[in-house]
Amino acid sequence: MDALSLSLLIIIAAAALALLYASGMLRRPEHVVICAALLALAFVLRGLCMGHVTDDYRTFLSQWVAFYRNNGGFAALGTSVGNYNLPYLYFLCLFSYFNVSDLVLIKALSIAFDVVLAWASMKLVGLYCSSNARRLAAFFLVLFLPTVVLNGAYWGQCDSIYTAFAVLALYLALDGRPAAGMACMAVSFAFKLQAVFIMPIFVVLLIAKKVKLRHFLLFPLTYVALMLPAVFAGYPLLSTITLYFDQMGTAGDALNYNSSSVWAFADNVRNTSPASALGVLAAFALMLLVFVLAWTHRSRLSLWAILGCAIVLALGIPYLLPHMHERYFFAADVLTLALACAAPEYLLLPALTQLGSLLGYYAYLNWRFLLPMKYGAAALALALAAALAFTAMQLQRRKK
After folding, report:
1. I want to staple 394 with a disulfide (CB 3.0 to 4.6 A). Which of 68, 209, 305, 364 is the partner?
2. pTM of the predicted model as reported, rounded to 2 decimal places
3. Nearest to residue 386, comparing CAs of 350, 338, 357?
4. How many Å apart are CA 48 and CA 218, to the nearest integer?
């Protein structure tokens, strides 16, 4: 590990420890020692991954940073670069000013948001139980979750950013801060289109009277505010709105891209257009089913039922949609783990989602399959069925 990587990891780990202290989780000296040791282990694991270079970095991220470096940094924001949305590109612009390894900076950014994601998960679990042990378990299990470690530190992807804001949005809305929650959801969406897998939970929150219709106005306002720096630099405002539509147009023809979705069972589909349309229809049907169940049982929409709805959406939508990639169950990985920390009897759910996600990660990162993706698809089908059963059970209970 080089000196830059070591320095950044130490700074982020120290910030994580300070965050735990500020949250009131380190009440005794032994708590500090134990948490510091666990953080050290979590960051040693990440340090071992920092030097790995993937094709995504070589082909895309490094080229984008180089473009900004050669064209004046933030002055080049008016030019369309890559297919990531602008908030993430702001960071790449910033990195272009430093004469150090942009690979390390890119990974350090994702690792910093690993900590934010762990903290947001800890706060969410705190709504369901008062046990400090379980809340700390949520924090550290997220940090050690294989897909979280691999996604940022090894792969250099940024799924921890949009998921951190999505989990934080859910927590804030359930905690009685709907405006802040809606703003966080908009930030999540501004970073990555995959936020749409969990975004419909705000309709359930509306039904549960956790948010009001006026709060939905904050979504476009927050999104546009995040686009303004690039617009002032010359980026067309309309393009910031249509960028995700352009991304969907480049999804590709394959029904499945190393994903443990239902389309892993479809090996020999020649005409993919009707199958693709069927998958989109099925995903919308699942979303509508969640809304209908929430509405018909609105007097019993407890915090547990809402969490169940969030898991069904985050897991079920990418499971049914076509053209999904291996990383698209990232939010489901984290939410099922949060449920298991709050209610350990549901530990099977994150185990199943990890199996499904990791098979896809292995396939991409090693260019070969460890097991047929059908195994992962079967695991996620079981997880989705369990999440639906959990949600239905919660909707039969009276709110406490």
Report:
1. 305
2. 0.96
3. 350
4. 41
pLDDT digits (tens, 9 = 90+) for 317-357: 999 999 999 999 999 999 999 999 999 999 999 999 999 99
Q: Tell me: the pLDDT tens digits for 288-309?
A: 999 999 999 999 999 999 999 9
By the 8 A CB rule, do 197 and 317 touch? Answer: yes
